[in-house]
Amino acid sequence: MNIDQLMKDMTLEEKVKLLCGKSSWYLNGVERLGVPEILVTDGPHGLRLSEGLDPSKTSPATTLPVEAGIAATWNTKLVREAAAMVGLECQHYNVSVLLGPGVNGKRSPLGGGEILNITQKIHTCLGRLPQPL
Fold first, then answer.
1. What are phi and psi of 125, to 5 degrees?
2. Rounded Cα–Cα distance for residues 122 and 103 (Å)
3. What is the pLDDT of residues 7-66, one digit of tens each?
4. Cis bond leading into 132, ω under 30°?
5. Contact 39, 51 (CB under 8 A)
6. pLDDT in tens, 14-24
7. Which of 25, 30, 61, 102 has the smallest C-beta neighbourhood within 10 Å, fewest atoms?
8. Is this model's pTM higher than 0.85 or not?
């Protein structure tokens, strides 16, 4: 797929629709040009794919310890295995984008969502930030 040509072939409305959600977990595609919808889901510590916004209706998936807990093991092999397992579950459910975790997240506990972030000082914890784990 040639991205430059695809952008030329899209109408302004189609381009804008790519920036908006279609539903709770789907992003719009452009069917006439073969651009598929994209399924996204929460996943800071395992895949969480729910029907709409009802958290009680989720697809079965493995739940992992939060990233800070896995990082505290200092076991990069374990980190790779956990990431590979989540990747396989994403493939099983046709998930294109896993939301989370964030790196160097919010610095104030008043903002919420810190559990979704790895840590503000991951480079001092692992010393490998520029390198893939």
1. -75, -45
2. 8
3. 999 999 999 999 888 888 899 999 999 999 999 988 767 888 887 777 778 888 888 887
4. no
5. no
6. 999 998 888 88
7. 102
8. no
